[in-house]
Amino acid sequence: VKKSTLMSCCSKYICEGCDYANQMRELEGKLQQKCPFCRKAAPKTEEEFKKRLMKRVEANDPFAMCQMGTKRCEEGDYKSAFEYYTKAAVLGNVQANYQ
């Protein structure tokens, strides 16, 4: 899922082009930036993004688990990354099987 963005509020992926088109629509219409799926306001800080992602992880969302595994792997915490990937795979995220 390389050319896409994870929406932290609902753990849905959106392609970069669709995300860009939605942002342009919101800017031109002077609308508040919101998630195109659940309509929740976009996070204003990285801290808020992380908080929302952790909320999705706690709700056993397989896509959020996979994303957290990727973050842990990038940080060098491979044991924790493996645990997140394993749980995401068990919950049905096919992508986690290949990480």
How would you concisely characterize the structure shown here?
This protein is mainly alpha-helical and 99 residues long. The protein is built from 4 helices and 2 strands, in the order E-E-H-H-H-H. It has helices spanning 16-28, 46-58, 62-75, 78-90; strands spanning 4-7, 12-15.
Distance between the termini: 12 Å
Portion of residues in beta strands equals 5-15%
Helix content: 40-55%
Strand tally is 2
Please give the radius of gyration in angstroms. Answer: 14 Å
Q: Class by helix and strand content?
A: mainly alpha
Tally of DSSP helical segments: 4
What order do the helices and strands follow? EEHHHH
**Shape designation:** elongated
Strands in their spatial order, largest beta sheet: 1-2
How confident is the prediction overall: mean pLDDT?
A: 89
Poorly predicted ranges (pLDDT <50, ≥5 residues)?
none
Describe the sheet with the most strands.
2 strands, antiparallel
Word description of this protein:
This protein has 99 residues and is mainly α. Helices cover 54% and strands 8% of the residues. The chain has helices at 16-28, 46-58, 62-75, 78-90, and strands at residues 4-7, 12-15. A two-stranded antiparallel sheet has the order 1-2. Helix 2 crosses helix 3 and helix 3 packs antiparallel against helix 4 (78-90). The longest helix has 14 residues, at 62-75. The chain is elongated. The chain starts with a strand and ends in a 9-residue tail after the last helix.
